[in-house]
Write a structure and sequence with these properties.
Blueprint: E1 22-25, H1 27-31, H2 41-54, E2 58-64, H3 79-82, E3 90-95, H4 98-107, E4 111-117, H5 120-127, H6 131-147, E5 151-157, H7 170-181, E6 187-191, H8 199-213, E7 218-221, H9 229-239, E8 243-246, H10 266-275, H11 284-299
Parallel strand pairs: 1-8, 2-3, 3-4, 4-5, 5-6, 6-7, 7-8
Helix pairs in contact: 2-11, 7-8, 8-9
Length: about 300
């Protein structure tokens, strides 16, 4: 486990690295949402299919949010019916409120990320409701989703800090995690929404949270805003975390937070893990082809 006693030195090279790590591609949601040029549905489908072929077992493909606020997500209701089911591949959708939850269930989405913010200011800017009200509703939605037999990722935004409020009390993040975990989600996600995480803060929070997570996998959704994204991945791996959200070409970031783009790059993360002799089962060259196709559309050449 990640503690000061396990600090890496010449005499103590650190804990053994895992043989495998799972990457979850979030570019088609968290990446696409920040682009001004609309990405047409057929191109989305092609890129998502390419990412599936590259080896991803989970891809976040859309969010059930207001298309007026996030125009790129206007076609999300159609995606569950358009994406070809592939054995072993899960298409995940972000949900922020009950209206989005109802739309997701009605569309036939089988995997949801039910997400809340640990920051009251960010919660109001992102969803229009207070943190406490959002958390209470999210816990109810998580319970309802599990009862419906849906795959559930329960996530906490701004888990490592907020540009509006500064430090977020780790005890609050742990307490909120306990509430989510009581609903028996398939995965718990800690999101560095504003890109403020450091290896030290990642280690500190995971030291408190992992002992209560039980059999529920913990994933990190990291941003590379301050260039610490891959260092934070390394710190989390040393703590025992084996699941990470990444986005092709490092796209994305929260559109309602100034200066918070983008996610850790899928390509750079794959390269780092390969250098660490950690397997992901993902074809880097296939991911690069998806990125190049998207770049061609966005730039026109």
């Amino acid at each position: 486990m990640c503690t000061e006693k396990n600090k890496i030195t010449a005499e103590n090279p650190g804990p053994p690295l895992p043989e495998t790590v799972t990457l979850i591609e979030v570019g088609p949601r968290d990446g696409f949402q920040s682009e001004k040029k609309i990405i047409p549905t057929p191109l989305k489908i092609d890129i998502i299919s390419g990412l599936s072929a590259a080896g991803f077992k989970m891809i976040q493909v859309g969010s059930f949010v207001s298309p007026r606020r996030v125009p790129q997500m206007a076609d999300t209701d159609r995606l569950p019916g358009l994406l070809e089911p592939i054995p072993g591949v899960t298409y995940n959708y972000l949900v922020l409120n009950r209206a989005g939850f109802d739309r997701a269930v009605g569309s036939g989405a089988a995997s949801l990320e039910i997400s809340v913010s640990a920051s009251n200011t960010h919660s109001r800017k992102n969803t229009g409701i207070s943190r406490d009200n959002a958390i209470a509703e999210a816990i109810r939605m998580a319970g309802d989703a599990v009862k419906h037999g849906l795959h559930v990722r329960a996530s906490i935004q701004c888990a490592f800090g907020c540009v509006y409020e500064g430090r977020i009390d780790p005890a609050f993040v742990v307490a909120t995690s306990r509430k989510f975990l009581s609903m028996k989600p398939n995965m718990l996600v800690l999101a560095d929404t504003t890109g403020m995480a450091t290896p030290a803060s990642v280690t500190s929070l995971l030291k408190d949270l992992l002992p209560i997570s039980g059999d529920t996998p913990v994933a990190l959704h990291l941003h590379d805003t301050r260039g610490l994204g891959l260092s934070n991945v390394r710190a989390a791996i040393e703590c025992g975390v084996l699941h990470f959200d990444t986005a092709l070409s490092g796209m994305g970031g929260c559109p309602f937070i100034p200066g918070a783009p983008g996610n850790i790059s899928t390509e750079k993360t794959l390269s780092m893990l390969a250098q660490m002799n950690i397997n992901t089962g993902i074809d880097l060259e296939a991911v690069v082809r998806c990125s190049e196709r998207l770049k061609s559309h966005l730039t026109g050449h």
